[in-house]
Amino acid sequence: MLKTLPLLAAAASLGLAAHAQAEAAKSGAYKLEPQHTQVMFGVSHMGFTTYYGQFGNASGAMVLDAANPSASKLDVTVPVGDVWTPSAKLVDELKSSAWLDAAKFPTMTFHATSITPTGPTTADVAGTLTLHGVTKPLTLKAKFNTAGVNMLNHAYTAGFQVTGTVKRSDFGVSQYVPVIGDNVDLMISAAFERSPS
User: Per-residue pLDDT for 20 more than 80?
Assistant: First the structure.
């Protein structure tokens, strides 16, 4: 269930980046910067609380066409074995064959197929999410934050907030449904660094 988050984030990032021309985001090729990208998820825990976790070490590539957002491209990969929660026992369970089966399906991927601007800094990013060996359509909501030179490493960076919802049972991850929620909310903060021209 958690796996879908990273991909969505990346996809949403692409859509906003493409639509970010009003914010002076530059066209070009970008790489996802994993140290400042967070792919988070939230799921109902027996109705008592929303339980949160995240995936690390996402990677991805975006080609931004600021003048023609629909021509932009985005692909993101997230290693499901890099899942984290406050419970070490749960982390082991999530990696197991009962849940994400990280040994058999080590990555989840998102491939954007269309980007539709919905406002000056927002876009719908439609694409396909592959998780647990299953590929399904997924649309993410992306919001462009800002773009500019990072004063720490001097890399030109574009930042996005991305949200979406994945029904985990659609991907064959149905352990404890419905006691543990079937719908997984994704919250992604994505940083993309522009490749030197």
Answer: no
